[in-house]
Amino acid sequence: MKYNLEIIKNKKKIISFSTVLILFSLLGILYSTFNTSYKKPINLGMDFVGGNELRIERVCEAECSNVSTDTVLENLREISTKKNVLNNIKLQFQNNNKLISIRTPYLSIEDSNNLITNLNNIIGPLNYESKDSRLIGPKLGKRLLTNCVTSLLVSLFAISLYITIRFDKKYALFALLALFHDLFIVFGIFSWLGIILSVEVNSLFAVSLLTIAGYSVNDTVVIFDRIRENLKSNKEGYNKTIQLSVNESFRRTTFTSITTLIPLLSIILFGSYTLFWFSLALSLGIIIGSYSSILLAPSLLLKD
Amino acid sequence: MKRRQGWLFFIIFLLTLSVYLLINYPLQLGLDLQGGSQLTLQIIKEEGNVTRDELEAVNSVIDKRVNNLGVSESNLQTLGGDQLILELPGEQNPLVASRVLGKTALLEFRTQKEGTSTDLKILQLQRLNIKELIEQFSFAEKSQNDDNFLKVIQDDLKDLEQELNYISTSNDLYGKLIEIKKYVDKEITNLFIKTDLSGKDLINAGRRQEQTNSNWEVLLTFSNSGGEKFSEITKSIAGTNQLLAIILDGESISEASVGSQFVSTGITGGSATISGNFSAEDARELEVQLKGGSLPLPIEIVETNTIGALLGSKNILKSLYAAISGLIFVGIFMIFNYRILGFVSVLSLVLYGFFNLALYSLIPVTLTLPGISGLILSIGMAVDANILIFERIREELYDGNTLTRSIDSGFQRANSSIVDGHITTLLSCFVLFLLGTNFVKGFAATLGIGVLISLFTSLNCSKTILRFFTTYQSLRQKNLYLPRNNFSN
Which pTM does this prediction carry? Predict the structure, then answer.
């Protein structure tokens, strides 16, 4: 057919490329674990460590006046009763000074309400209808983290089990290798994002990893199915058949990725900010997943 | 052919049914889409797991309290064996709810130990002192030049600690003040002996404004046996200088003497009032707590989410844009690459959308932001099955097969790949649904339902529509199924 990916010739290049990606991710994870303030492989967000997150819009007539965050913080400190919390406050203006976003350690509902009232006095009026406030206790955070890690492990185990039953050992091993390759790289990229842009991961990140897992295996399974089918009528030898199968499935795999990326892209562009990093993680996972299904997993099947 | 026509009518029937369902049973929107607050309550048990019975007992107490609070359309559900989730839609302040729900509200009636009158008097005075200090502290914190003021409070606290012979261990001043207050409360409670009368003996609670001043008092109505116990207890201390204390969660909220006129019968009538300088709000909160009974296990509010109504409606709009633009661009992509086949997949996508939404209103699934992203993402998965089939059909056509034959074997040969792929995604959804938080469950539910429905729409609906199209001679030309410029070899 039309596509002619030379995976037999490029096996070494493909494997080296993946190795570089994995090392890059590993570096991010190690750097994040040892060289950052949070000392974790990835920058854990509020869902996992607890805290208080507040976003609220100001009511402005035409444009919102420019206010320095230092002035606001100074004023807040003067009228607030929780001094130690205010030492750890992070305050930002976004959207042309219209949107205020605040992060503090965990507060009670009462304290959080006071904070908003104080804020209203300093830079109000605020639009309470635009409020988005989340308070998560540290206990719950730990629990959510355990929950997410368990979900990930259990479903990876379930997928591995299914693949091992469904395929013979060699196929199963390589499909899983491709899967862990994809997850590891997405994880690594978010480690780097945490280091460079202070991007935090929340429970939705765990969800995106799980979804990527399902998706990546799906892609690989389709190609391996094709390889098995073609090997039955084995006309051109083992390696050639694999390459042929990859080229036959190429359109399908890229098309599927594109039709999944299109809705994700529209969430990134038009959707709520809650879903931004989630959709980005999924998009990355799908791109890397397609690469590993088309190029990496079949290359691993090739015989020397 | 007959059987296919049967399917066509079935699909049209399902579509009509879906539209009917959507019109008559509107979708339930989550708090992130309609605005409101969500509180997660964690049951705290020192040892062992929370049993089913305990969970239900806590649930029913919280439920009563929420109802007595008069919040409209609230929704309470259990989560994961030891948590409860309370949803308050609209612009209702979660503050009051959190104050009322968080307390154990264990009500006890205790009688004073003999010969402790002097001790009690001293402690009552100290309690007054510490309460004043706490008030001064919150005043000092609000004023600008507070350093001197704070120093005075600090010194007073030190004096009090010496009197009590107890040194507080908290780090900050406020913590110290609260700690000393707790200590004094405990010392007072220790001067009283437990009786067998408790909050369990109440059948009702109410509140009214005191006649002499503007303070509020809370009225207690006992059950028959409770009334008897109450008269027994009051009889036993009537005319003595022993007091009756009403204790809530370890803190004595009222100490009162029983007059000598009650020596023979005790206080009868089965009711009592607590007048402890309550404000209107305090009295209402206590009333709600007592009506609901005490919690069998303490709870803690571990999570609060509040979303403004305006933000909620913005979120709906944004999701709608995302979903529609996603659909349109996927549609364009499919029609561009697969021509008539692409058009068929667009039609089955539309069916897919309707079936999904109808099922949400039928089950019902509460639609949240992650839920919508699950739905939008499953569009991609639904198209995936179509792509697999169409690629096969194209191959068959290139091999020179007839259109009908190509379509048949295309659907047949793609089957196993489609089922395999869907199973792995379903596995992930299943685990997410079992182990995830509420937030995550929404995503797992919509993605899972989407994957299941897409099996029906992409296998059955697209086949039926395609068959229907191919009954028209004009739609049976091969070049309508293959892009003209590509693959001419």
Answer: 0.82
